Amino acid sequence: MRRRGYLAAVVVGTASTAGCLGGFAGTEARLATVPLLNLDDAGHSLALEVTFEGEVEHAATYDLPGGGSDDPARQVVEGEWPDAPGEFTVRAGLDGAAPTGFHTVPDGAGSACYRVGVQVRPDGTVRYPNGVLDPSMCR
């Protein structure tokens, strides 16, 4: 069985599509959602890849219109993620670039429930805010 979750936010770390946010190897967690947000005035095409235990679970490209910080474009990816806890990695690439930046879901308290966002910043770089959710959010 696979589960869906909902959105909550706690912001940490930043990364550009050319760099990475330090991963947390060997962790176990469950993924709820991957919200996408464009804070840039310009629209962007965002290539998203989500892996679970090294296997691609979701790969798609999303067109996010511009909107800026005052009225950002939003979209939430609610995949049918695996029930079992494990290591999730979220990668993103902008405007035709392959997904290269990443955030690996950290281990909270054993098998915590997470949401990992992908934000296009006003300067055109990407950051990965994440949050720990109530376990009931990963149903």
Please describe what this structure looks like.
The protein is mostly beta strands and 139 residues long. The protein has one domain: Immunoglobulin-like. The chain is built from no helices and 13 strands. The protein has a 4-stranded mixed β-sheet, with no helix packed on it. A hairpin with a 6-residue loop joins strand 8 (88-94) and strand 9 (101-104). The protein is globular and about 40 Å long. The N and C termini lie close together (10 Å).
Task: Detail the topology: elements first, then pairings.
Layout: E1 2-3, E2 29-31, E3 34-38, E4 44-52, E5 55-64, E6 73-77, E7 81-82, E8 88-94, E9 101-104, E10 112-116, E11 118-120, E12 126-127, E13 130-133
Parallel strand pairs: 2-10, 3-11
Antiparallel strand pairs: 1-7, 3-6, 4-5, 4-8, 8-9, 10-13, 11-12
Query: End-to-end span in angstroms?
Result: 10 Å
Using only C-alpha atoms, the radius of gyration works out to 14 Å
- Major pleated sheet: 4 strands, mixed
Question: At CATH's second level, what is the architecture?
Answer: Sandwich
Counting DSSP E segments of at least 2 residues, the number of strands comes to: 13
The arrangement of helices and strands along the chain is EEEEEEEEEEEEE
Structural class: mainly beta
Large-scale geometry = globular
Poorly predicted regions: 1-26
| CATH topology descriptor | Immunoglobulin-like
Residues in β-strands, percent:
35-45%
Strand order of the largest sheet: 6-3-11-12
- Which CATH class applies here? Mainly Beta
Please give the share of residues in helix: under 10%
What is the total number of structural domains?
1
**Average pLDDT number:** 75
Q: Report the total helices.
A: 0
